[in-house]
Amino acid sequence: MRVVAATVAVFVIALGAITSIPRSATSAPPPPEGQAIFRFDTFGDEQLWTKVLRMHEVIASSLSPAAALSLGLKVDVEALPPEIINALKAGQVNLNDPAVTVKLLELNAVVGVIGDVNPSGRLKSVGITCALCHSTVDNSFAPGIGKRLDGWANRDLDVGKIVATSPAIAPALKAELNEWGPGKYDPRHHIFDGKKIVSLNTPSLTVVIPSIYGLQGIGFETFTGDGPISYWNAYVGVSQMGGHGNFSDPRIGVTITQTPDLVTPKLPALLAYQLSLNSPRAPQPGTFNLEAARRGEGLFNGVANCSSCHTPPLYTDVMSGSPSAPLLHNPAAVGQDARYAQRSATKQYRTTPLRALWQHPPYFHDGSASDLNAVVDRYIKLFGLPLDAAQKADLVEFLKSL
Questions:
Q1: Which of 92, 126, 274, 392 has its CA 20 to 30 A from that of 322?
Q2: pLDDT at residue 79 above 60?
Q3: What is 290-316+352-401's CATH number?
Q4: Range(s) for CATH 1.10.760 in the chain?
């Protein structure tokens, strides 16, 4: 922690000292349309984060860089001008200046958070983008500071605690949000209808924030397969992020209509970008035992019968139904808690596509398995799999390799 604090301290004082760099100093060729939407488009959700939650006030008054990093917010090192990068080697310490956070927003360096800063340095408004939850950084400069990794779930991000700092949130709701914890979110807890926050279900049931790479061919990405990927993008963009747009699903009793619709026209380009994000391969050597993984693959496709649902090459059977009707499973049949599914449109779960398992514990929709050993143990018990200790270890090594 001391090393992290010292590194961030240098970062903060450097930014505090360099306040005259204009935005043009970081100019670069514009990103492709879908990437720009994913990283920088708020869909007009300032109507929630600024007008209702008043998060711009919180940031300007009390969110220091140290506090932001502790909440899991990330800094894009490539958005920082060379003058700041060079100044990071300087050595004074100041971690508690919210004005520096505002400066980071002015530089568009806080991943997934967009701020409008006037010429005098006052933060006028703030909104969020898809990248807030579904990007992280590679920590190449320091913990929480590095190059963007789009599509990787931000498992450090404590969304509940961030929202709970809003002066507009009632104490009872604050307490509930503070229980969410890092890397978790409850998309069935509430919606924003364009004017106010409306409760959907209580108590809150959080799910792990999913990574969204490796979606090509999956079709139905959400835990409960409520609709194709763009359906969920629309639901989240409008009802959860607070974007100014339209969404309707009578199955869950949600209809939101706003004009103009700033979400729907952007869904095709957003989807195209998401589908371009490939799953990161498990690095070798060291991440898994290659020979054990080969034996484990035989077990996966053989006696363990995992492939009957986690069908290669996508390691899911969700598209075995039809393009409009995913193949889903009753919670009891797959050993999952039914409560979250009951709040969805389908009341069932889809088979999780197995991709890049090596880098994103915990597992299952609710994070109830802390590691892959716990995952295998659950299925051994549920299905009575005839695996001895050595075979279990081999199967775990195969899962690490995916």
A1: 274
A2: yes
A3: 1.10.760
A4: 290-316+352-401
